[in-house]
Amino acid sequence: MTSLYAPRANGKGRLSPLPSYSNTLFEKHSLRSRPSQWTTTYYLPVPGSRRGRRIKIVLPLPKNVYHSAVHRWGRKRTVAIFLGTCLLFLWLLSVGKRHHRSDQYPNSTPSVEPSTLVFAREDLRRVWEWEIASGHYPSSRKIPEQIQMAVPPLNPAVARKQQQPKPIPTRFRPPSSVLSETIGAGPKRTYLDIQSAPPNVAYPPRPVPGSAVDLDIIMDNCDFSTNKYVRDCLEVLRVGAGLDNENRMRRGNTDDWKYIYMEEDRKFDSSPPIAAPQQKAPYNLRQTDPNEGLVFRKGEPLEEHIVFGPPRTYRPYAELQEPCDPDYPRIFHMFWTGPFTDKPYVALMSFLFTQNLDLHIPPGSPGPDVCRPQFWLWINPGPAAMAHNPSAVHDMYEILSNNPWSSPFLHPRFKDVIQFKIWNTTEQLDSISEIKDSWRTANLFNSGGHVISVPTKKKAPKTTSIEEVLVVVNGTGTAPEEASATGHEMSENDMFQRTGSTSQDTYDRLSVILSDLARFVLCHRFGGTYLDADTILLRDWEELWGWKGAFAYRWSRLEKYNTAVLRLNKNSALGSFLFKTALRNGLDFHPMTISQYTKDAHLEGLLLRLPDALFDSAWLNTEDYQRDRPPFPFFTEFAHFFETPAQHSAAPQALGIEGFFRGAFSYHFHNFWWKPFDPIRNWPDLGQRFIKGETVARKRLFEQKLNSTRSTASTTPGMPGQPQPVLQELPITEEDYMSEDAIEEDKRDLDWATVLKRTFEAYIRGERPNLYGEWITW
C-alpha cells in the first residue's frame, strides 16, 4: 500500500499548487513554523535513501522570486542556478581579497627560495661551538635543534644559573639526544639602575664604562614578531639608560626594564668550577644520515671543512688591563663614493655629539679610563667599476682639504677619533683568506641574484688628475673626460661613471652593491660596526660595544636582515662561513641573500636580527604598520624627515634632538642623497675656527643662485617693441655672500633634518653642550 505522503515515482512535478510533504514530520514543521517572506525552504532528496528522506535547506531567496523562477525554469533548475550563483560570488570575493592584499603588501607572502647551503651539519655545529666558546653568544636562547648538539656547550658570556631539577622523562616521551641549550659559565651580572641624580637632571648620565646590553631583554620588549610596539620599545630603552632624565614619571616596578649590566671580576667568585659536560648517549641507536633534514644547494658539492683558529678567550671588562680590548676594537666603519657632501658630514657630526670621545677634556690632560671609539670613513675615490690611480691616497687628502664639508674633520682635535681611509677593492679582497684565491673569477656586482656585468673598454681610460677632480668637487664645472663624452656614450656607460647619487634618476647602483660587499669585508678584517652613510647616531653606544655578539637589524615587518647597521667580529667563524657561502652563491652580499644564508644553515641566532626600533624607528609606520600607536615623531614617509608636514612642523624646534625617537641608538633616513639637510644654510656653519670652508661654500651657493637668476632673466621675453635688457656682470665681492642673514630669509618652521644639523653645529661652535651636558674644549 502506497503512503499518501510518499514521493512520486515517475519524477514529474506536481501540477497542483497545494503544498506536498514527503512525511508527516515535514508537514508538522511547516504548519508550526512561521513562514518568512525573505527565505525559501527547499527539501533536497538524499540519494540511496529507502524511505525517501530529504535534507532541509533554507535559501536566502524571497518566496515571490522563488515561485516566479520555478514557474519559468522548474524547481531543480532554479535551485541549481541559485547555488551556482552563490559559489561564483564566493569565488570572486576570495580572488578579489587576495588581489587586494597582494597590492597592499606585495612581499607579505615570500616565495620559496632555493637553498644556499653548502656545508654539512658537522661544519655548522663547529661554527656554533666556536662562536659560543669565544663569548659571541651572550644569550640564553636555545640553539636550533637542527644543529643536533650532542654535548651542551659551556657559554662563558652567560652567567651561571642555579641548578634546576631536570624534567623526568615519561614512557610516552623518551629523552631526546639533541640538546638545544648552553650551560652558563660566565661571571655574575649586576643590572644597573641608571638615572640622573637630582637636582642635576638637565642631561642624562653617560653609560658606565664597560657596561653591556642584555639583548634578550630588548627582544622581549621590542620584537615585532610578538606584537611589540616601537613606541613601547623606545620607552624601555629610555628608562633603562636614564635618557628620561627630565621627564621620568613614577611608574610601577620597572626592574624588568633594566637591560644594562656589569660583569663582576671572576677572581672574587667563590663558586666551584663547572665540570665539563659529558656527551649524552643517543636514545635511538639506529644509524641515520648525518645530514638528514638539511636542504643543500641543488647540484653543488658540499664545501670542504672550514679551518678555524682557536676560540678567543672571553675576558670580562673588569679583567682587562686597558680600557680597550684589542680583540674587539670600537670602530665605526662607513663607505662613501664621490664628492664629500652634507650626508657624511652630518653622520660624523652626530658621532662627535653623542659618543664618549673626551672632547670636553682639554687636549693633553689625563682623562678617565674610557675606551674612545673611532670613526673610519672609507673613501672610494672613483666610480665603483674603475681602478684607482697610484696617487689615490695623496689625492684623497688633497680633495678632502679643499672640500668645505670634509675639511673641518682634518682638524688636529679630531685626529685620534676620525680617520679617512682609501678603499682599494683589490687590496681589501686579497686580505680575506676565504676568497682571496677565487674572487677574481666572480662578478663583484651581484645584488640579490641580479648580476651587472661591467663592459670591457676598448680603450684604456684616461687617468683623472687631481685638478680635474677638484673641478667637480668645487662645483665649477664638469670633468674633462665626462664633458668630452658623446651623448650616446654617456647614456650607455652612465651607470659605470657615477660617483654618488645626485637624484632619483641617477642613483649610483654600483656603489651601493659594492658597499654591500665592503661592510662584510671591513668588519671581518678589522672588527667593529658598519654604518650606512644615511645613518645618524642618537646616543652613546657604550653598552652595545659591551655586547660581544654579531648583529644586524630587521627589515621592517619581514624576518630578513637590513645590514645598514652591521656588527661582525674580526676573523670569526661566522664571518668565514658567510664568505665561503657567498663565494659559492655568486659573491652576493645583498641583505636578503644574507638572510637566506643564515636561515638555510640555522645560524640566525649567531647574527642576531635586532628590532628595527633600535636603529630605524620610523620604518614600520612608513609601511602602514602600528599607526594606531606610533612613536614620536610620526613619519608616514621617510621624506618627512627632510620636509616635515605643516601640521607637525612645530615639534622640531620645540623639542629638538631630545624629542627625536628618544631611546633609539641611531636613525636611518633611507637615501635621499639629493635633499639637503638645511636648504637655507646649506654650508658647514661651524663658526670662525672653520670660516675658510664656510666662505668657500657660501660663495659657491651665491654663484649658483646668481647664475640661475641670470639664466631665468635671459630666457624671459621682453615687452613687444622693446629691446631685450642686457644683464651687466659685476664682480662678486665677499660682502655679497658673507653678509649677515636676515631672519626673513630663513624658513619659518624648521624641518627635523635642519634642526639636527644646526644642533650638532651649535655644539662645535661652543654654543651648547653635547647630548650629555659636556662642552667641547679646544
Automatic annotation (TrEMBL):
InterPro entries: Nucleotide-diphossugar_trans, WD_repeat_DCAF13/WDSOF1. Gene3D superfamilies: 3.90.550.20. Keywords: Membrane, Transmembrane, Transmembrane helix. SUPFAM superfamilies: Nucleotide-diphospho-sugar transferases (SSF53448). The chain crosses the membrane at residues 78-96. Residues 707-717 have a biased composition (Polar residues). This is Glycosyltransferase family 32 protein. It comes from Sphaerobolus stellatus (strain SS14). The lineage of its organism: Eukaryota, Fungi, Dikarya, Basidiomycota, Agaricomycotina.
